[in-house]
Amino acid sequence: MKLTLLDQALDLAAGSIPVALATELSSGRQALVTATLQDGDLGLAPGDIADIRARLLEGGGSGMFELSAGAVFLEIWSPALRLLIVGAVHIAQTLVPLARAASYRVTIIDPRGAFASRERFPDVEIIPEWPDDAIPALAPDRRTALVVLSHDPKIDDPALIAALASDAFYIGALGSRRSHASRRERMLASGLSPAAIDRIHGPVGLAIGAQSPAEIAIAILAEITAVLRGGALAGRSGWYPDGRDG
Amino acid sequence: MNDTFEILSQARAWRLEGRAVAIATVVATWNSSPRQVGAKLAVDDRGHMSGSVSGGCVEGAVVEAALEVMQSRTPRQLEFGVADADAFAVGLACGGRVRIFVEALE
Question: Taking CB atoms and an 8 Å cutoff, what residues of chain A touch B28?
Fold first, then answer.
């Protein structure tokens, strides 16, 4: 790989631009392709570029890929996963480093300065605003997970309503089965459909018997992972005897 | 994917310090292999590693190949699996087979 091509790929990735890298394994020649540009020492036919762009758009995985002149190894580098945490509470203090270890870019949203302080959350992005302002501005997409942890309906409910208007792949809400049932009632009363509300995972996380804030953070990241990867426990968090999870 | 970027950023930093660097990438797997396609291991000329291409069972052999590729500047493909009897094949403890592409960072 040429250093110049690597620099270019890393710059694009840092700007959250999806990148495809095609490698001819016999020669090591490579082509970098994005939705708008193409570079590298591997020549590509226009039809090949179109095929690679189509794969990029699908967000497909990496693997061998047939081009007109033969097979290449095609890597798709998707932008980083994001986790938006509403409520700068104790659980969030463990969830931040855990999620980062699993390659999420983390943002904390909490209008309450006493919680969302630099002392409690050094070196993480904090947005000290109300979630109904902050979340639409962050534009959660299919690679974004969101959890509400504040336990305060004044903060959590508007956050969930904003999240349900997005494509976020995971939406979770902290609280017991009982508080989740009353949350459902409030959200139904506010005009949301049962199907929309069913997207919320509540109680949040897999039912692993978590007690401490750190254990709850582990349960949350485990459930997010199950949903992201389509694991056996996705949609079967274990909180309800009938098998639903929200 | 951050993983990949961290490994490649490390490879870039090594190269900018003037070290020779090779990058190994899992390009195909069969049966249960420990790392998925796209997993990467960067190696510098002192044998320092960043990332992984298996659960640790073939990294030693990959580092050897990486050191050769740094010299030859010719990319190589390696294949490992439990059934391999040739001297270079270390064998994956978990079964499965993996093909790894090794290239120099130039």
Answer: 63-64
Q: A6 and B1: CB-CB below 8 Å?
A: no
Residues A88, A206 within the same domain: yes
pLDDT along chain A (246 residues), means of 10: 95 90 96 96 95 88 92 92 96 96 95 92 95 96 96 95 97 96 95 95 96 97 96 91 77
Contact yes or no for A198/A165 (Cβ under 8 A): no
Listed residue (A87, A213, A84) closest to A156, CA to CA: A87
| DSSP per position, B17-71 | TT--EEEEEEEEEESS-SS-TT-EEEEETT--EEE-SSSSSSHHHHHHHHHHHHH
The C-alpha of A211 sits at a distance from chain B's nearest C-alpha, in angstroms, of: 30
Domain end point (choices A56, A77, A98): A77
CA of B16 vs chain A CAs: smallest distance (Å):
9
Instruction: Provide ipTM, 2 decimals.
Output: 0.86
Domain span holding position A104: 81-229
Nearest to B44 by CA among B79, B20, B23: B20
Q: Residue A246 falls within a domain, yes or no?
A: no
Q: Which domain CATH number covers A216?
A: 3.40.50.720
